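Annual report, structural modelling task.

Input specification for the magnesium ion complex:
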Amino acid sequence: MSHALTPLDEAQAFVLAGCLRNKPRILALDEALGCVLAADVVARHEVPPFATSAMDGYALRADDTVVAPATLEVIGSLLAGVAPTMTVGPGQAVRIMTGAPIPPGADGVCMVERTRTEDGDRRVVIEVPVARGTALRHAGEDISAGQTVFAAGTVLGPGHLGVLASVGQNPVEVYPRLLVGVLSTGDELTDDTAALEPGKIRDANRHSLLAMLRADGHDAVDLGIVEDQLEPIRHVLSEAAGRCDAIVTSGGVSVGDVDYVKVVLAELSGGSMRWMQVAIRPAKPLAFGTLAAGGTPVFGLPGNPVSALVSYELFVRPSLRQMGGHLELHRPQVLGVADEELRRRADGLLHLLRVRAWFGQDGRVHVRASGAAQESHLLRAMAESNALALVPDGPGVGAGDAVEVMLLQAGEMGPTPTGVAPGAPVP
Ligand code: AMP
Ligand code: MG
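The model returned the following structure:
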């Protein structure tokens, strides 16, 4: 194992190269939220499929209303979902509801508010002239037949699913959700919530990592805590390799560790596993390789909880997105403003500080360190952060200086975890 430092981009490139895009699968629309389309979707028919009324009112011939008010004979009524059987002739109108098909002969709709009925609804007085096309939704106005509705590579959100349903595209061909196994290694770890025995700590990583995976739209499988022994680690990893698309472990990959995870991974990967000391802090140690049987990628993350989560962000998340067919792999990164000085020591590493980021009045992203302590074993600053500030080697950045910010939760950009500005009264 080499102790030479690997630059971050080289480590990311190595990991990405081992995580090939999965095979597409046909999924029911309601199973496809968050998945990436594997093929263009072409509309089989127009949307709307026929001309409909945009209002409750009367379908009529616009020419009959040039001189208003105009009295027309009501020859029937149409509800949404009913095919018209009548044709609107000169001097005639049909009572029509929003979404009902426009009957043949009609070329406009007068909203009901501009009408009154006479003679027990047998006649209607149209109070204003109705221009041709008024309150009509034309066939194909939204989508025309044969049109590419969404191109391959589109990430399916709720709106996309609705559109696909409206053109009858169900099921749909997508890159499926990944099944990702998570295990923790370490004899000191326990999941028991009873009083801790001496020397034991509770397993934090597995719970965070399972949640990260689920938040990213994957199916996460809990592979439990595995003791620092060759046989149990070998057993869990080989069993998981058979059913998981990828495996994430934490612990046991640092330089000083008892080598169990490293030994087993070296063995199961047929030598493809690479141990890296990435030139970053936290999350310096990283193991990555693909298992010889089936090519399942395995990420060996460091045990320190903050390191594990930062490592997930930098290496696991983009790789799994690539496997899932995503074209955009990385979190958004912007040049923000440090609202307070972000000190660090020069050590040849890129520092990733856990920060709170929010949009200032100036429209720029501002950051503050989340929690005074940035040590990699202190998880609370990580929990309170929504971004990482990328502080290059040197003494750090001063208050008011520009700093690169990776946004981890672009949807949660309040200045504090609760979204309330420091010192502001809670509403
Ligand atoms: P390791 O990478 O195994 O050397 O672990 C580094 C540090 O992280 C040690 O202090 C471990 O006790 C701690 N650690 C390892 N795994 C976990 C975990 N799953 N949850 C919380 N702390 C952990
Ligand atoms: Mg350990």
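Residues 305-323 form the longest helix (19 residues).
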